[in-house]
């Protein structure tokens, strides 16, 4: 009996908010092939999705951004207000840097393009459910490339200034770059040839030094402030 209960508790409850029916159906069938993921509801507009979240508090909301009446960014803000532990994954065809930053700033934990492989999306859901943020690597690169170049370095604070940049180590800056690219601790560890425990320790140190609560906030702050 206890084993069955544990299995039920381990299933990630997901809802889909997408106005295109074919996409909703395709996502539901693809995701429900995973024994640890269950699509429990789907909606064609944000208002109905928000009402469901308010009553049932699902683990994950897969959110389209271009929705009628209320867009996905506005909906994400409301969802995080009423259910902070519900994670939002933005699933969109847009890769504009302004939209990426606005979406992550609204509280979304991941930004995925709609051509993502279903198996990869399932892995994103698993990662996000544990508190990891994920950004499509192409999207992250475009966002970084769109940042304005600083021509006048005199506007930057000196190292002795009280408003100097976050004092990250050289290794932590490397980790931050991978974090902004949406890599998990395991992927970061592989890139830097260190243990997962070490990668996680670096991430924790970065969050503390940047005065943010999670990886999403760190990524947004890093992009906004041109730290990477």
Description:
The protein has 228 residues and is of the alpha/beta class. It has two domains: 10-143, 3-Layer(aba) Sandwich (Rossmann fold); 162-224, Arc Repressor Mutant, subunit A. 51% of the residues lie in helices and 13% in strands. The protein is built from eleven helices and six strands. The chain has helices spanning 2-10, 21-31, 46-56, 72-82, 97-105, 118-129, 137-145, 170-180, 185-192, 196-210, 215-224; strands at 12-17, 37-43, 60-63, 87-92, 110-113, 134-135. Strands 2-1-3-4-5-6 form a six-stranded parallel β-sheet, sandwiched between helices. Strand 3 (60-63), helix 4 and strand 4 (87-92) form a beta-alpha-beta unit. The longest helix has 15 residues, at 196-210. The termini are far apart. Mean pLDDT is 83; it is low at 1-8 and 152-164.
Instruction: Provide the CATH architecture of the largest domain.
Output: 3-Layer(aba) Sandwich
- Give helix % range: 40-55%
Largest sheet: 6 strands, parallel
Strand content: 5-15%
Q: Which residue ranges are poorly predicted, with pLDDT under 50 across at least 5 consecutive positions?
A: 1-8, 152-164
Count of structural domains: 2
Numbering strands along the chain, what is their spatial order in the largest sheet?
2-1-3-4-5-6
**In one word, what is the shape?**
globular
Radius of gyration: 19 Å
Text of the CATH class of the largest domain: Alpha Beta
CATH fold title of the largest domain:
Rossmann fold
